[in-house]
Amino acid sequence: MDRNFRVGSDYNVIDVVGEGAYGVVCSATHVPSGQKVAIKKITPFDHSMFCLRTLREIKLLRWFSHENIISILDIIKPPSIEEFSEVYLIQELMETDMHRVIRTQDLSDDHSQYFIYQTLRGLKALHSAAVLHRDLKPSNLLLNSNCDLKICDFGLARSAFMGEQEATGFMTEYVATRWYRAPEIMLTFKEYTKAIDIWSVGCILAEMLNGKPLFPGRDYHHQLTLILDVLGTPSLDDFYAISSHRSRDYIRALPFKKKKPFSQLYPNASALAVDLLEKCLTFNPKKRITCEEALRHPYLASYHDPEDEPDSPPLDPSFFHFDNGKEQLTREQLKELIYNEIMS
């Protein structure tokens, strides 16, 4: 990965703080103001999938303005489309992320409440705009030393109003971390709803409670087995909510499993934490708690303030026009869309 940052004289690059499949993040100083920032350098143009993710990320982060969603402070404008080979997003600098925190320390119950509250508060802004994040996991929750939390990485986010055709394409790109993936994604229910994000929040809460991932599946089958080991065999009602015959046959062939009480799995957790966990990790997405309901849950009572949990304005239906799965845009077309988005 090329670590040269071509960002002009306004930014003084300090250090690499993170690296991903198609990007590097550095800490830097904005010279005119002295503000510390993060610069995310993305080189997406080798793959149309990376281009799509970059376009989603830029459009969505510019749209949302919320305390619990990472914001874009600036984007370095390329000199011309011909010389446009990398994208530089300037963002707030956050010191760490939830993955690192969980790995290095035990969280108090109060920390868990505050972090889950902020996650749900940010998620409410997304869901009110009918956007699914689809890749919530501890490393996508950024933290600073004040315990402020911001959701990041919108490369897999989609509109909640996808038709069936788009939902089919939705899976082809689904490389989100398996451990936080809702069962309906693996069992190909016909529709994917906001409930997939709530499942991920439940998995994150579980990990905060004892420092270990709840469902660390090695592959698709192992992942489902781990989920059913805890939740038990689905009830008939939930079984018939699965529209895919293949998925039903698969579950029917598995041995019967009894539900394990979450209170036994997390004996040191508070009863309220366990209750919220159970409501987030409900097998049937239609019965899973919603973001608004979760914010009102007694576990979060010391932070919940209905006057200070803002919704977002609804997105125009054309917002995801490049992403409807009907026509495959070429890398060149996507590059032009990204260029126009940055220059607008």
UniProtKB/TrEMBL annotation:
Lineage top rank: taxon: Eukaryota
Positions that bind ATP: K41
Cofactor names: Mg(2+)
Pfam family for this entry, one: Pkinase
InterPro entries xref list: Kinase-like_dom_sf, MAP_kinase_CS, MAPK, Prot_kinase_dom, Protein_kinase_ATP_BS, Ser/Thr_kinase_AS
Assigned EC number: 2.7.11.24
GO function terms (MF aspect): ATP binding; MAP kinase activity
Regulation: Activated by threonine and tyrosine phosphorylation.
Protein kinase domain: residues covered: 11-300
Gene3D superfamilies per record: Phosphorylase Kinase, domain 1, Transferase(Phosphotransferase) domain 1
Annotated catalysed reactions: L-threonyl-[protein] + ATP = O-phospho-L-threonyl-[protein] + ADP + H(+)
UniProt keyword terms in alphabetical order: ATP-binding, Kinase, Magnesium, Nucleotide-binding, Serine/threonine-protein kinase, Transferase
Function (record text): Responds to activation by environmental stress by phosphorylating downstream targets.
PANTHER family assigned: MITOGEN-ACTIVATED PROTEIN KINASE (PTHR24055)
Family the entry assigns: Belongs to the protein kinase superfamily. Ser/Thr protein kinase family. MAP kinase subfamily.
Protein name: Mitogen-activated protein kinase
